[in-house]
Amino acid sequence: MSLSINAVARTQEGKGASRRLRNAGLVPAVIYGGDVAPQSVTFKDNEMHKAVATPGFLTGLVEVVVDGKAEQVLVKALQRHPATGAVMHMDLQRVQADKAITTRVPLSFINAAQSEGVSKQGGRLTIESKLAEVRCLPANLPEVLIVDAANGQLDQIFHLSDVTLPEGVELVSLLKGEDHDQPIGRIGKSKR
């Protein structure tokens, strides 16, 4: 687990209470899921700003420590201020080690510059999808999914089936059948 953030339980709820918390430099949030009742919490604004800037915060597991008790969560929703971009509210879902989770993971294309389609045929890799939805146990959740474009040719289309999957990880779209093997990138003519 790469990120841990501290929270404080709160009892005040509603729009007015949330507005007062934000004015005091706090970010209201709700932790829900599992066998436990939902819990309203707050985070310090400056800690939340650092956490959101951390790679993997929005797509990976995060440890939240509420009054000394640690829980693993996934960020399910993040509301930002339309003008400033400051985090205004978060929804966090508890995860259980023995239950599969469904979440989105970043895609990373590697070796495209060394591919024949780019280096010899004058093509350029265009990425069409930056995230893919996966299902796995929390312990198997990858930080990133790799797509190796080393053998890419000009006019080649990369699909979800070209993703290298770690053990225990499934792509949700491919579970629905071959018709859902979406394109995620392509090597096309460079427009220079």
Automatic annotation (TrEMBL):
Pfam families: Ribosomal_L25p, Ribosomal_TL5_C. Keywords: Ribonucleoprotein, Ribosomal protein, RNA-binding, rRNA-binding. Residues 101-173 form the Large ribosomal subunit protein bL25 beta domain. GO terms for cellular component: cytosolic large ribosomal subunit. CDD domains: Ribosomal_L25_TL5_CTC. GO terms for molecular function: 5S rRNA binding; structural constituent of ribosome. InterPro entries: Rbsml_bL25/Gln-tRNA_synth_N, Ribosomal_bL25/Gln-tRNA_synth, Ribosomal_bL25_b-dom, Ribosomal_bL25_C, Ribosomal_bL25_long, Ribosomal_L25_dom, Ribosomal_uL5_bac-type. One of its GO terms (biological process) is translation. The keyword Repressor does not apply. Residues 5-92 form the Large ribosomal subunit protein bL25 L25 domain. Belongs to the bacterial ribosomal protein bL25 family. CTC subfamily. This is one of the proteins that binds to the 5S RNA in the ribosome where it forms part of the central protuberance. Part of the 50S ribosomal subunit; part of the 5S rRNA/L5/L18/L25 subcomplex. Contacts the 5S rRNA. Binds to the 5S rRNA independently of L5 and L18. PANTHER family: RIBOSOMAL PROTEIN L25/GLN-TRNA SYNTHETASE, ANTI-CODON-BINDING DOMAIN-CONTAINING PROTEIN, RIBOSOMAL PROTEIN L25_GLN-TRNA SYNTHETASE, ANTI-CODON-BINDING DOMAIN-CONTAINING PROTEIN. This is Large ribosomal subunit protein bL25.
